[in-house]
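Human: You know discrete backbone vocabularies at least as well as I do. Show me how you would write down a chain together with its backbone fold. No explanation is needed for now; the record alone will do.

Assistant:
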Amino acid sequence: MSSYRRAYLPGGIYFFTVVTFNRVPVFTDEHRVEILRQAFRKVMATRPFEIDAMVILPDHLHCIWRMLEGDADYSSRWREIKKAVSRQISATTNARNERMVWQRRFWEHAIRDEEDWRRHMDYIHYNPVKHGLASRPGEWAWSSFGNAVRKEWYEKSWGASESTILAGMERE
């Protein structure tokens, strides 16, 4: 077992990568993506947090969450989101009674400053292009890029070519 220690910072901002079990392409249609969205809404209704950015790809997702002041418990939120999605997508369980939809763990990174936040925002929004699913961020339907453009965080044409800010960033 690894000795990895998660960073729990009350009121913190976090980047997450969550991957499907064996990278099976689970989120390939609007119905499955809507199941995930409903799970987020359900959890957010009882355990609030804000989402700055998100992209849903067939076999993984990335997002940035802002935890509320004094709250650092993102792990239980992920557990509930993953459980809610798994119950609707697969009835099959393994010997540990787990539904084989998600990898057991997820990757988190505590955002340190504005530059770190910007780099991770760029990474999230460019990810569909990186994986060959779109030719520019605005073409990918399951992304917060359109919201970010409306907030004037990006120009609509951003990402037509790979930004140098993404060079060397690997988060999967």
Q: What stands out?
A: Residues 30-46 form the longest helix (17 residues). The chain has a mean pLDDT of 90.
